[in-house]
């Protein structure tokens, strides 16, 4: 809508005044005589357009301010996350430094002991050389005496010469006994040296892992503030890498049976290297006329065997007490050839029983499936249906026979074929022996659905099939 400017209207009114006064002449409007005028006000459309533009500009400015505030808040949140991460990394670095100092001290102590053992071995070697020389001299003297005696008649031999010969023989026997003792001591010292070397290498591995974590922390603290959006994913992807342990000894036995063949007769912990794997410690039972590598042992329930899959795969416990060697190590031992699985049980009256199977174990890709063939024993055979059965734990039910299908949940890891199977890794019961409760103590050996036997001690070991079978 347009409006006529006010000055123009005013001029039209003035022009019409003479017409009203003189009606004889018609009114004439002389447009050329009108002065030129300009509007002092902008049209309303222009004002509306300008006001709309200003409103849109104000809204855009408000949106821009809100967006900027949101970006500033996001930056502050990332800064807070970085501060918390930096504090955690600083605390972790402190712990790593403390652990590194402790490991360095332990490594120094072990190195000192290693040097002392080496010095002792050198002294033993020197002593053995001197003893061997003395033995050679004594043997020469005995030969000379025997030649002299052979040249004389029996009647001419004096009591003094006989006593001298006897004393020389006793000295020789003592020297031989000393040599044997020194040889045994050297073998023991060599075994201790191997164990010390293993411990030192493990400590070096831990120190290397700590140094790697420290280097990662130093790199993280150098990240600039402009790289904060890309630094957050790096914080969550830091992992520690493990190094391969290297052993100095190259003549590790493949198992305890080979140790027995080398002349070792003492039960204890030894290092073995089966089937080209890395060396590891095992407990060897040499008490039955051959060497057997123990893979499981229970005696008092001090160790909790209700462990997850990772523990059963890598092993847990104390080799001098209750332990499970680990499925990976068992597979390395069993993959060397035909093996015998020997199960020894002891009841609460110290009566021992056993059962033996020909034993095959598949690898991790088959979930360590077991294959058993009964050989002999003094116990009922409850594992006749365990051919091709895979290993399962509470967090990895490979055989689908776990608590979801059993009225009484199983505990521990085992080769489960059905509910209620014999499980030598089940919970160790500590019920006192009073009347009928005695049969529920320790570990149960189930020979049927209702028949079961209670045992205080269990031991599972592996040996080669062709070794001596001593029951």
Q: Helicity range of the residues?
A: 40-55%
Per the CATH scheme, the topology name of the domain at 256-432 and 440-464 is Gamma Fibrinogen, Chain A, domain 1
Global structural class: alpha+beta
Q: What is the H/E order?
A: HHHHHEEEHEEHEEEEEE
Question: What kind of sheet is the major sheet?
Answer: 9 strands, antiparallel
In the CATH hierarchy, what is the class of the domain at 256-432 and 440-464?
Alpha Beta
Integer-rounded radius of gyration: 47 Å
Judging by the overall fold, what is the CATH architecture of the domain at 256-432 and 440-464?
Answer: Alpha-Beta Complex
Number of helices: 7
Stretches with pLDDT under 50, minimum 5 residues: 1-14, 17-25, 220-249
Number of strands: 11
In short:
With 471 residues, this protein is α+β, with helices and mostly antiparallel strands. It is built from seven helices and eleven strands.
What does this structure look like?
It holds the Pfam family Fibrinogen_C. InterPro entries: Fibrinogen-like_C, Fibrinogen_a/b/g_C_1, Fibrinogen_a/b/g_C_dom, Fibrinogen_C-term_domain. This is Angiopoietin-related protein 3-like. Residues 96-185 form a coiled coil. Helices cover 46% and strands 14% of the residues. It has helices at 6-21, 44-151, 159-221, 228-236, 256-261, 309-314, 327-334; strands at residues 268-272, 280-285, 292-298, 316-317, 323-324, 339-346, 352-361, 370-377, 443-446, 452-455, 457-464. Strands 1, 2, 3, 4, 5, 6, 7, 8 and 11 form a 9-stranded antiparallel β-sheet that branches. A hairpin with a 7-residue loop joins strand 1 and strand 2 (280-285).
